[in-house]
Structures are given as C-alpha cells and as structure tokens.
Amino acid sequence: MIGNKKTDIRIQNVRTDRAKYQYRTPMKFGGRTVTECHVLNVECEVSTRDGRTARGFGSMPLSNTWAYPSAVMDYDQTLAAMTTLAGRCARICEGYAQFGHPVEIGMELEEQFLGAALGLGRELELAQAIPKLATLVTASAFDAAIHDGFGKALGLNCYHAYGRDFMSRDLGAYMGSGFSGAWLDQFVNREPVGRLPLYHLVGALDPLTPADVARPVGDGLPETLSEWIRRDGLSHLKIKLNGDDPSWDLERIIAVNRIAEGAVVGARWRYSLDFNERCPNVEYLIDLLNKLRERSPAGFDRVQYVEQPTARDLRANPQNRMHAAAKLKPVVIDESLTDYGSLILAREMGYTGVALKACKGQSQSLLLAAAAQSLGLFLCVQDLTCPGASLIQSAGLAAHIPGVSGIEANSRQYCPAANVGWEDRFPGVFRARDGEMDTSGLGGLGLGAV
User: Fold this and answer.
1) Which of 271, 369, 277 is nearest to 329 (CA)?
2) How high is the mean pLDDT of the chain?
3) Is the predicted pLDDT of residue 87 greater than 70, yes or no?
4) CATH code 3.40.50.1240 for 195-438
5) Residue 449 — very low, low, confident or very high, per pLDDT cuts 50/70/90?
6) CA dihedral 277, 281, 282, 283 (to 10 degrees)
7) Which residues face 379 on adjacent strands?
8) How many CB atoms lie within 10 A of CB 376?
C-alpha cells in the first residue's frame, strides 16, 4: 500500500483506442517532416476506498518522430513500437492493485512502464531501444486518465488535491531531502489564470508571404504567417530553425521579424528559437545570436528564450555547456528533460529554463514544475501539436503553474480536424484572441476536460 488517505484511488479497468488525423499542412522540425497525427486515447475507471467510482480520460499524440528519432528504424517501425508499448502499459495499469494518490501511483507506474519498454525492445529485437522520452509520451495518456478519474471521483478539480490532505508523500520522496516537508500544492495555483500568451509556431516549411504559397490549402484558415498574425492578434512566435545552416537560420529569423513588424505596428513581439537539438555545438548558437543582434537589434531583443539547441544526450555531450549562451538569452531544456536528475544535470550544464510538457506525464510534469520554481528557472509550457483533450491537459498545466511565460497550441494550425467538437466546448483554448489563450474555463472536475 503506497497511500494512507481515505481519498486514495485504485485502478479498476483501462480501455484504449487510437485515432489518426492528417495534417492540413506538413510540419518540419529537427530535419524531419510530419504529415499525420496518431492520438492514443485512454479511459480509466478508478474507485475510492469508500466505493466511489469515476471514469477518467487521457489523450496524447504518440509523436514518434519527436520522441523516438532513429537513424536505423523507419517511421512505421518506431510508431509500431510505441503502439505495442501502449498495450503493455494498459495491462500494467490493470494489474496494479494499490491504492494511492495519482502522483504516487503515476511515479510507481512510470518505473514499470520503463521496464516494459526495455523488455519489449529485447523481445522484438528492436534495432534501437525505446527511448525514455518515447516511453513517457506513450504513458502520459494513462497518467492523465488516472488524475482525471481521481478528481471526478472526489468531485474536485485535480489542482485542488495536490496537498498533504490528499497525498501521503511529500516532494522529498521524489526529489530528495532538499524537498522534505514541501508539498505539491505550494507550487501550483488552485485556480487557473485567466489568460496566457499563445506561442504560434512558424515551421521551417510554413509560408511567410503569399509569394511563398506554392499550393493553397483553401480550407478557410490562414495560408501565411501575416494572415495568422492578423486573424489571431498574435504577439508571440516560435520559430523553427535548421541548426545546420547558419545563413538560413539567420535570414529566417530576420524575415519572420520583418513580417511581424509589418503585420502589426507597435506590437510587443516575443520570439522563441527552436533548433530541435540540431546545432552542432554551443558556438553555433552564440554566433547566430551575435549576428542577429548586429543585423536586427530589435529582432534580437524580441527573442524571449532559446529551446534546447544541441543533442539531447547530455551525459554523452558534456562539451555542450550553455553558460555563455545563457548570458545572451535564457536557454531551456526540452528533449533531455525526463526526470529530476536530468533537470539538475541540465542546470549544472548552464541551462536556465525548462519546457514543461504534458506529454511527459501529469505526475512527472508537476514534480518538475515544483523543482524548476524552487531553482528560480525560466518556465514555459509547450505542446506536442496536442489536439482535443490533450490540449486541455496542456493548457490546464500551463494555467496552474505560477510563472509560466506562455503556451503553445499548434493543433489549431496543423491538425484542426482533431479538434472538432472540442472547439465548441472550449472556444477560448482552441481559438486565440488578441494573441492569448483564454484558460479561465479550465477549472472543471478532474483535469478540466468535462
């Protein structure tokens, strides 16, 4: 028994299904192009000690291109591995008989999921083992469903139930003695903030002007960056860069800045630069930022932060220290951030911020958010082109974590078909107004997607 609270829950049964959606336009990042979305949906029935039951729901795109990049396995093979792993995760959940709080259950299940991924790699003789990040992404829908069911069984929003009245273990149990006596509710808002700046993605293939549109989509949504800016009143842009072509990267940033300035005069623009680990070294980033400052001082000033520029395996690349780069702009850890240990290592290597993502699990994300706040790190929340319920979870995370600078919501650009039905229920989340997402309505039962 891991929990000793009367509010503890136990998993009763689990059901999964998948849905496939085509992107309206291709998205290029990290040297790869994505054209479709495979969403894993999980329904989890839970019961409390006194017999109350509820069904929780969790959802997440598997996104093997991002979570399981491989030079020795193709797209279909890595997707199949994650899909098979999802089946193993379902069985693990159904076989887990302990009562506990969702964070307590989630962290114990995570260890079993990682073990299952390792065993599956051997069983299937995979050319490349399933990475920890891919396991977290696969498992995140299960974790979300458990949290959601917990809140619904108690008739509460989950963010009202992350303190000592509901949890049996403090943060020291997960992150060491430095957190002994601290509880999760000290690092979350009980109620969601009303609005958050929305970071709009500018993919490497996305047209900036009408001249860039080779083949119009013709579905009524904007075709160019300038049209998106005017429609949604954007002020925050996430710019995907190549990381292996400094001239292209520099000119892309300058071009985006030029479009932004021309579309809305006087806007307080903010940019994030995302290389998806493709920079060969830190010097590449430093040189690019210095050249940007020379060529476009205003464009440089508008860069709010830089996402993980170099390889995700931090221990294998100790030379990629970010101290000098972080003196120019905050540098946030993304792909490498999979647990508290990786956060501490990243900080030692000079990273000054973290990118929280619901696809790494509600339980893990909350713990990382607490650690990041205690260390005074820059905070942002990014998605995985999350549609539907997965975006609600991501938005809820962003709206309940103090100090979050902004949130992504890429599905409205690339995969709106997966948002059908959800847009009517949560219009403020799925349609930006004045460059912001309205998160005020995310205080419902469970994770809020009721």
Assistant:
1) 271
2) 96
3) yes
4) no
5) confident
6) -140
7) 354, 404
8) 9
